[in-house]
Task: inverse folding
């Protein structure tokens, strides 16, 4: 299946991704972000990279789509550095599967 | 443990025994599945953790490059340089069956960027921008690998959770209930049997008694 890749986040962070051919959508407000992601899900994007800064504004967004095959919503660090959401998310899935977080930090 | 509400008959007993056998077989299979999934999941997640660290570092490096480029160039020029990308990334989503969990497989193709993937002329842009774009193009495959891994890990985690629940339900609820009910029906049937035997003995006694009395009466008539 052909699909597309999108990068969503604040302008300063995501701007550069345009150069390598990702579809870049600038969104800063929480309503804007969740609306964008919803649209991308509807349009069957395969991968949505979302900056952690944007993700932190819409709590629960990751959990909403974690059990669907696509899109894969993947947190990436924003320009101001990583907030650890991506790692946290990984630990969460371990906790879910094993019942306890057994990854070393 | 709660009994299953059934009639204590032989028919029910046979049915329950069949159900118990199926449950036990299912329990064993699911347990094996869970253990195997767990093994796969843990190695995947460890790899995932490493990859995420690498990707995060690489992306931060790319940002640094862009910051420097942004400092050298005017924001407008930077915007303009990145506005019309030459290269397009096409994503191909396949799927793979990982222990009955369908996970996506991402492969990608870049198109349009013949020779180089700089979407701008070199006059109005700085060299830092070039190297950041090149670095970003380097990170691209890692990012997609990460996406695939994280999604697989999430889907596996979901499947493990589901399997674990089923295993527990079978082990701690379904199988004990069935066993208890089977025992209950067995005991009930035995009790019925015993009741029946005593009843028969009683009836036999009564018939014998009647026979004796009839004999007595006949003897008196004759005597």
Result:
């Amino acid at each position: 299946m052909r699909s597309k890749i999108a990068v969503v986040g604040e302008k300063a962070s995501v701007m550069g991704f345009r150069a390598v051919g990702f579809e870049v959508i600038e969104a800063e407000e929480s309503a804007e972000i969740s609306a964008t992601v919803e649209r991308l899900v509807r349009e069957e994007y395969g991968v949505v990279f979302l900056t952690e800064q944007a993700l932190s504004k819409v709590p629960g967004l990751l959990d909403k789509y974690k059990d669907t095959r696509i899109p894969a919503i993947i947190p990436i660090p924003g320009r101001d550095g990583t907030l650890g959401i991506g790692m946290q998310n990984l630990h969460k899935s371990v906790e879910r599967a094993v019942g306890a977080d057994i990854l070393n930090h | 443990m709660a009994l299953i509400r059934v009639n204590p008959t032989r028919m029910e007993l046979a049915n329950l025994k069949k159900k118990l056998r199926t449950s036990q077989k299912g329990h064993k299979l699911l347990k094996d599945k869970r253990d195997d999934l767990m093994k796969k999941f843990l190695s995947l997640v460890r790899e995932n953790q490493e990859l995420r660290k690498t990707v995060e570092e690489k992306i931060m490096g790319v940002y640094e490059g862009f910051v420097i480029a942004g400092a050298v160039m005017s924001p407008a020029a930077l915007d303009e340089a990145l506005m019309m990308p030459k290269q397009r990334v096409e994503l191909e989503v396949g799927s793979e069956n990982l222990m009955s969990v369908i996970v996506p497989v991402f492969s990608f193709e870049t198109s349009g960027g013949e020779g180089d993937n700089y979407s701008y002329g070199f006059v109005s842009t700085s060299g830092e921008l070039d190297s950041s774009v090149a670095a970003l193009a380097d990170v691209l495959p890692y990012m997609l690998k990460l996406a695939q891994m994280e999604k697989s890990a999430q889907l596996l985690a979901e499947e493990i959770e589901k399997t674990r629940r089923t295993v527990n339900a079978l082990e701690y609820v379904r199988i004990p209930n069935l066993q208890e009910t089977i025992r209950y029906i067995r005991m009930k049937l035995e009790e019925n049997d015993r009741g029946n035997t005593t009843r028969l003995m009683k009836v036999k006694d009564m018939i014998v008694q009647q026979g004796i009395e009839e004999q007595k009466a006949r003897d008196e008539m004759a005597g």
About this structure: The domain at 5-80 of chain A is CATH 3.40.50.10580 (Rossmann fold). Chain A touches chain B through 40 residues (CB under 8 Å). The beta strands of chain A are 2-3, 5-9, 23-26, 47-51, 72-76.
